[in-house]
Amino acid sequence: MLYLDESTLQSLDITTQGVIECMERMITGQAEGVVWSNPKSLIQPGDGRYMMSTLSAADDPPYLAAKSIVLNPENPQHGFPQINGLVVLLDSRTGVPVAVLDGNWITAIRTAGASALVARRLARPESRTMAFIGAGVQARSHLGLFADLFPLERICIYGRGKPNRQALSKAAEILGLEVKDCKTPRPAILDADIIISSLTLNATIKPFIDPDWLHPGVFLSSIDCAKPFNARDLAIFDRIIIDDLQQEAAMVNPMLPKDLISGDLFSLVSGRTQGRRNQQERCAFVFRSVAIGDLALSALAYEKANKSDAGLRLG
Predict the structure, then answer these.
(1) Count of alpha carbons within 13 Å of 278, Cβ hemisphere only?
(2) Torsion sign over Cα 283, 133, 38, 121
(3) Nearest-5° angle of CA 62, CA 115, CA 297?
């Protein structure tokens, strides 16, 4: 069995295009009945912790991925990242474990990959200004992938944590981008072509974004279940895609009203849900998690590591 830690995963030759393509293959496979995933399982003890697991499997490539993560707001006080976890990859035919992978890296890249996959269909190709509501790990992973897809010139940041804002600013400057650090959300998103909202989910988040700040043509990717918005304010979007209609139907607390949902990843990739129709449309992707993204990226990383003899052999 192979162990792939974060530094090893970062060293693999995994491109933005590779991430998107492997996720599209899994989404297509699910529509064809050869890839499967269950709605995520969730435990919230009531003390601020958020425990989640996902399960997905495929016949081709023949793997099963089980991911477990724990979010604990108190972790930074003890020197740990707020979110930690791992992915166990098994042979889906025999059940034999083949790899254990760092869950933080997989989560960050597959989440940004899902956003990028949708953005290629719903964001304007000439998008140059990208805004971030929240400046943590997800913001940095999104910046890396989106900079490969769009002719970005500047980013605008609104976030609470100074170290995170500084890290995101540095990553943008390395890419040659102009950086605007904003003290309030309005100037951050007012002129944005693309908005990434990635606040850490907790019960204290209250809506704070006025829909009138969003100009025509904007694309929003909200990995925080659109918590910065009042649900009905999302009606300003002409098209809203979610991750999985079946998963959403199983959730006790819906992310947004059903009548605002245009489709999910599967209908978008298959073409049953149309992409952007004109330059003025406001489009959004609102999602909880992408279980088959964990499977797609873990399988890709495992196969690349095998070919390059990377990682630590266990047993």
Answers:
(1) 4
(2) positive
(3) 25
Q: What would the pLDDT profile of 266-299 be if each residue is shown by its tens digit?
A: 999 999 999 999 999 999 999 988 889 999 999 9
Listed residue (205, 229, 23) closest to 113, CA to CA:
23
**Residues 207, 213, 219: CA angle, nearest 5 degrees:** 90
Q: Which of 201, 199, 200 is nearest to 209 (CA)?
A: 199
Per-residue model confidence (pLDDT) at position 204: 72
- Write down the residue that tokens 């869950």 correspond to: 103
Q: Which two tokens stand for residue 67?
A: 């991911």
SS (H, E, C) the chain: CEEECHHHHHHCCCCHHHHHHHHHHHHHHHHHCCEEECCCEEECCCCCCEEEEEEEEECCCCEEEEEEEEECCCHHHHCCCCEEEEEEEEECCCCCEEEEEEHHHHHHHHHHHHHHHHHHHHCCCCCCEEEEECCCHHHHHHHHHHHHHCCCCEEEEECCCHHHHHHHHHHHHHCCCEEEECCCHHHHHCCCCEEEECCCCCCCCCCCCCHHHCCCCCEEEECCCCCCCCHHHHHHCCEEEECCHHHHHCCCCCCCCHHHCCEEHHHHHHCCCCCCCCCCCCEEEECCCCHHHHHHHHHHHHHHHHHHCCCEECC
